Amino acid sequence: MTALPFPLAEEPDDFARERGRLMFAGPVDFVKGVVAMPGLPPADRLEVCFAGRSNVGKSSLINALTGRKNLARASNTPGRTQEINYFTLGESRYLVDLPGYGFAEAPVATVQKWQTLLKAYLQGRQTLRRAFVLIDSRHGVKTVDEEIMTLLDKSAVTFQVVMTKMDKLSRPEREKNLDQVRAALAKHPAAYPEIVMTSSEKGDGIATLRAIIAGLE
């Protein structure tokens, strides 16, 4: 039997689950919002970043991971987060919330400025271990997602897809959209060969994602 390309990440074992729980149960503090590369904090620890289309549920996922309701600002206005937001995760990690992309309301000059900053960050941050690209389970990979994945390929940054809002779909719909995401990922050399399915509302996949982040070296 041929192994499925881009299988779903397995549930963590007890050790990995507890390591992830402890890391996210510790201090999580907002450091700063960055609008230009010179403003980045010292590259003195491993960091992971979260990227996603506006309205993909990124703020909700970060809040669910950290167990804090208002750490990342969820807004009814997509694209409100216009900075690279840095959070400390204990003493050993930075958790980085990248600006939402793919929204029509923002002025072109603003979008170009964010894209330039994003590109500079992804290509110039040596301590970045993994990018987590969030894909809405209901919609699959869209053109704007392809653009960020291609940028990650060019930047040689390993990225892992995290599918959000899985509770909003029936099982057949989920499988269909999963197939679409797998087909899209096959074209990207920087894609990590596992997908994480999550629901911030139900808590599905949160322990798995915590364990993955805690296990990075």
From TrEMBL:
It comes from the Bacteria. GO terms for molecular function: GTP binding; metal ion binding. One of its GO terms (cellular component) is cytosol. GO terms for biological process: division septum assembly. Residues 44-217 form the EngB-type G domain. InterPro entries: G_ENGB_dom, GTP-bd, GTP-bd_ribosome_bio_YsxC, P-loop_NTPase. Keywords: Cell cycle, Cell division, GTP-binding, Magnesium, Metal-binding, Nucleotide-binding, Septation. CDD domains: YihA_EngB. Its cofactor is Mg(2+). Pfam families: MMR_HSR1. Necessary for normal cell division and for the maintenance of normal septation. Belongs to the TRAFAC class TrmE-Era-EngA-EngB-Septin-like GTPase superfamily. EngB GTPase family. NCBIfam families: GTPase_YsxC. This is Probable GTP-binding protein EngB.
